From TrEMBL, chains A, B:
The keyword Membrane does not apply. The keyword Protease does not apply. It comes from Dyadobacter sandarakinus. Residues 1-17 form the signal peptide. PANTHER family: BLL4564 PROTEIN, RIBD C-TERMINAL DOMAIN CONTAINING PROTEIN. This is Cupin domain-containing protein. SUPFAM superfamilies: RmlC-like cupins (SSF51182). Residues 65-121 form the Cupin type-2 domain. It comes from the Bacteria. Pfam families: Cupin_2. Keywords: Signal.
Amino acid sequence: MLGLTMCLTLTSILVAAQQKTRPSTVLSTIFPKGQKAPATNFTGNAWVTQLIQPDSAFNIPVGSVTFEPGARTYWHSHPGGQALLATGGTGYYQEKGRPIQILQAGDTVKCPPNIPHWHGASPDAGFTQIAITPNTETGRVIWLQEVTEQEYRQK
Amino acid sequence: MLGLTMCLTLTSILVAAQQKTRPSTVLSTIFPKGQKAPATNFTGNAWVTQLIQPDSAFNIPVGSVTFEPGARTYWHSHPGGQALLATGGTGYYQEKGRPIQILQAGDTVKCPPNIPHWHGASPDAGFTQIAITPNTETGRVIWLQEVTEQEYRQK
């Protein structure tokens, strides 16, 4: 009887610990990780999977991106803007000249057209996000320089 | 020692059961449920939360929808189409004249412009999805008639 009680208690603690860690450290596994993102535009390890392929009737690419801890995009801008939906872990988002914002599951961001910015994971926890890129008739993305360690660590 | 072994075994079974049920029955809780969807366009209980509010620079509404088991939209069409991303549970999607498709977490759908269709939960498991509506300059949605029990139960 004591063994069973101890067992149920341990199980409860483990399940509670799993639930407690979800908002800040558990990555979403809803969508596949996809392909490794190119080292020319990303620092560290990131993966991209295309969820909606654009076509003539439906010109809006949608993708899921997974960042390992410390991984992030280079600085870049979108001529038509981009929406980000945070789906798991802890992420960073920064527009040029503004402080880094922390993103957690459920947070959303509108990156305005032509504003240089970057996004990625925090140093200690990975990050998953959905990216929706509208108005692509003027281009999808303009890549800029790498986010330096000093810029990344200013948080 | 036997108690500890039994305990660890039970814990493993419970954690495995949690993981195993995820694809078909566990709803995503990444985004808030939001507001009850109007009974004029939905059968059963559904909730909608707007994730990206459209504006002049960024005219793409994005929302998360949660359907209770048995809940579904009325038949409707989108002049500019709509993309669906299944985020949890088990859903149904049907275009007029075609069979019902089952949707589970990770599945995606492009609803083509002007094609009557409906979507919602399966009878026994709820469903969560993200909806992305592009090309809204020609209108967001045209609502049609209710999905009858006979249409819904043909699966």
